[in-house]
Amino acid sequence: MYKGIEGKIYPNKDQQVLINQTFGHSRFVWNQMLNMLNTRYENNPDLNMLSFSKLSSLLTQMKKEYAWLKDVDSKALQNSVKTLRETFDRFFKKQSNYPRFKSGKIHKQSYKTLERTIRFNHNQKYIKLPKLGWVKCRMSLNHINNNNIKSVTVTRKSNNNYYISVLVECENQELPKTDKIVGVDLGLADLAITSDGIKYPSLYLDRKYKKQLHYWEKRLARRRIQAKNEGIDLRSAKNYQKARIQVAKLNQKIKDTRKDYLHKITTELVETYDVICIEDLRTSNMMKNSKLAQNIASQSWRMFRTLLEYKCLAYGKEFIAVNPYKTSQICSSCGSETGKKPLNIRSFICPECNTPHDRDINASKNIRNIGLGMSLSQ
Ligand SMILES: [Zn+2]
Fold first, then answer.
1. Which domain range does residue 284 map to?
2. Is there a single domain that holds both residue 160 and residue 188?
3. Looking at the 3D structure of the chain, how many domains does it have?
4. How far is the CA of 342 from the centre of ligand 1 (A)?
5. Are 70 and 62 in contact (CB under 8 A)?
6. Which of 170, 268, 300, 334 could form a disulfide with 353 if both were Cys (CB 3.0 to 4.6 A apart)?
């Protein structure tokens, strides 16, 4: 199963020049080949269409004649030939029109490349593309396995911005369909609340590890000063190093515990539901909480979303992000607005239809209802 993952790239000046050159050169190759094939046909209509490998060898010849073609990504040029050949195939099968010459006047331009060396860096802020090197990027989805990348299409749109579409092979592990849809609200006391009334409590890792972390961080600071005063190099200050390792270990433990928990919840959700709607992340409900709690919560939410999106893609489920506007105010039973409520109000009764609501479950039901309207499979 292949999926295209969209992203935006931010090439620097030099890279932009090279990208635009690649568009031009790919177009040149297409037009030259097409012209050659047209002439060939006119001269002798009985000849068979040239194979892709024959056309490829003609490309090699062309590169000798026009040495500047070597300045750009060779796979992009090769792909231009391949696409031309495929267009002819479709034409012969009466599935498409006769191939046309390409114009440089059209602002939207693109090329496709397939090099094995294409890869993302560790945090997917950069992608390495042939000839261009590392290009800054922002992807709609993280956790793309570098080994699964099949091709990349680079596009310049009419707004003069540059985009990429990365074709990846997803492990084809579609889960059985359950015909169930769910809305998920993200919170603090409970990390995730579903429209079916399931609450996944927060782990409160900040509280759990606060004391220990504080204990070792204090020692770390004190031992740093101590070593400095005694003129000892920090690298050989044993007690300092011990504290440093303890702090690092605790932070890693918090990270790992959170990740395991988020994996467990998201796996459970993709196994149970076909369509999962969550709110687009908001920050307004984080007031009145300690800095550490806020950080941990927002990190958890981001990771929750990323994992869920990735798993939906990998397991053939639908992921929908919903605008959280008023999802905590509308009555999910009758649709009437019940007004803003302070955060300490955890439940309420709808003044219109008298339905008693748990605040968070009501919100997740609204998220599900909005998502239902956006779902592709409905
Ligand atoms: Zn109501």
1. 181-374
2. no
3. 2
4. 19
5. no
6. 334
